Write a sequence for this structure.
């Protein structure tokens, strides 16, 4: 697909891997989220993605925390959780594409003169030193020359845009360790927005944004005809709503979580206090997201026509209409599993739970 960062972390990708992967072999998408690990197993059959199995495991209990609480586990504990969810889901595939969190990645679109195209590797390595905030020797660099838009072609633009991605070697080594300990083989590591985009948008969508409401953070990407132009990491997520509700009402986290899910965003007078607790957090997230939309608009001189919400936090009742009010743009909820073939009787369940699986599903799709 056009938005895939094809060479991403190419140094770690076994180039011959696709050859090893028989056309009908199953693949896993693995998303190690802050509150839960999600896995999806797909198989390709005559150009269709067949859903074989999926599963989710809450990570909190592996770190002595409650179910649903975000936790940072070490590699051993993370691998233990991955093995448990694979077993629980009956997933037998061993080839995985694995998400690297957006906040562990440095992403920037840089502009270079067309003349740089002949010696891109050298030019980018030199340029990266100016942009990447840590020594280049400590990171793995990758880049992707972004295709020109029709307008840029017409204007015969003399610059090229390159998406620069840098990931700290420590992060990559940690992920490699986790995957090895889980008994899996990584076919590729990919930044989480690429996974969420692949499963959240349809073909031919013009300029749209995707927002992933996670437990501890919100991730956003803006795309033009499937090509990611901007990404943003917002350091608040749906668990911040739960924590604030727990603190303000004095109930424990589990009850606050239940309250959040049951009431959602409500206009009813009896829910006024709950709304007053959640509103400032949501406003912060939406304000940050809006800043990205504005930046995009002033840089590219066109606006986003639709926003797709995804991530478990997008299950919050009323969040889509809240989004429409905040952004004054059409808002849709993603339906990631609609990209797969699955038994009809599962459709309703998959539509309901699908939002949490968008990254894992998008990763697996990318490996087919
Ligand atoms: N029905 C619901 N209503 C409201 N919120 C919900 C609902 N179901 C799940 N959530 C919230 O979704 C969040 C988990 O979403 P998700 O699984 O996408 O997060 P994550 O991937 O673990 O976190 P992150 O992306 O920040 O690392 C939790 O905070 C949970 O409270
Ligand atoms: Mg997530």
């Amino acid at each position: 697909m056009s938005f895939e960062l094809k060479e991403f972390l190419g140094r770690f990708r076994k180039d011959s891997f696709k050859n090893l992967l028989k056309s009908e072999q199953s693949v896993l998408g693995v998303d190690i989220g802050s509150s839960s690990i999600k896995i999806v197993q797909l198989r390709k059959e005559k150009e269709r993605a067949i859903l074989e199995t999926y599963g989710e495991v809450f990570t909190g209990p592996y770190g002595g925390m409650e179910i649903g609480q975000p936790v940072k586990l070490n590699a051993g504990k993370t691998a233990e959780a991955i093995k448990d969810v694979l077993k629980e889901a009956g997933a037998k595939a061993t080839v995985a594409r694995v998400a690297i969190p957006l906040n562990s990645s440095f992403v920037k679109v840089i502009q270079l003169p067309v003349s740089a195209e002949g010696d891109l590797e050298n030019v980018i390595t030199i340029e990266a030193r100016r942009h990447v905030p840590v020594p280049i020797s400590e990171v793995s660099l990758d880049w992707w020359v972004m295709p020109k838009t029709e307008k840029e072609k017409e204007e015969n633009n003399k610059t090229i845009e390159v998406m620069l991605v840098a990931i700290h070697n420590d992060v990559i080594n940690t992920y490699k360790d986790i995957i090895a300990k889980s008994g899996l083989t990584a076919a590729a590591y990919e930044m989480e927005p690429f996974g969420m985009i692949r499963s959240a948008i349809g073909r031919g969508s013009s300029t749209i944004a995707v927002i992933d409401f996670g437990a501890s953070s919100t991730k956003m990407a803006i795309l033009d005809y499937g090509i990611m132009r901007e990404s943003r990491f917002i350091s608040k997520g749906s668990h911040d709503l739960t924590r604030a509700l727990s603190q303000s009402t004095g109930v424990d986290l589990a009850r606050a979580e239940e309250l959040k899910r049951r009431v959602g965003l409500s206009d009813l007078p009896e829910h006024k206090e709950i709304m007053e607790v959640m509103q400032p957090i949501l406003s912060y997230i939406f304000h940050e997201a809006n800043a990205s939309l504005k930046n995009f608009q002033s840089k590219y001189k066109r606006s986003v026509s639709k926003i797709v919400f995804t991530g478990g936090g997008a299950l919050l009742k009323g969040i889509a209409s809240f989004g429409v009010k905040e952004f004054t743009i059409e808002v849709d909820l993603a339906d990631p599993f609609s990209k797969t073939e699955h038994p009809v009787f599962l459709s309703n369940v998959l539509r309901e739970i699908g939002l949490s699986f968008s990254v894992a599903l998008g990763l697996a799709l990318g490996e087919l």
Remarks:
- The domain at 202-334 is CATH 3.30.420.40 (Nucleotidyltransferase; domain 5).
- The chain has three domains: 1-103+170-200+335-368, 104-169, 202-334.
- The first helix runs from residue 17 to 20.
